[in-house]
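Write out this protein's structure.
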Amino acid sequence: MIQIYAGKGFETQKTERFFKERRISFQRVDVLKFGIGRRELESVRAAVGLGALIDRESRAFLESPFRFSDDEALIFSALLENPRMLRLPIARNGKQATVGYSPEAWADWK
């Protein structure tokens, strides 16, 4: 089952439209409302890397003291506590994951 961790925004709409047009079922999780679990975020981190998960242009990240840190454990904890610092949408299919709108990576997902 494909999971889309998303908030509100154009990238999220495009991502959902991609899967709907191809009749691929997915589960949408509103990260800004419900957050994301540690195991899910660790799985995505293993697939794409910690740097890809951070929305460096978000207001939450720019106002946080973590933007000056290189400590990956500290940054990972900050992402769990404040999902507004995540780059969304995050699409996950088992151990595969993408961040942002990535139709070329999703082409073979079912």
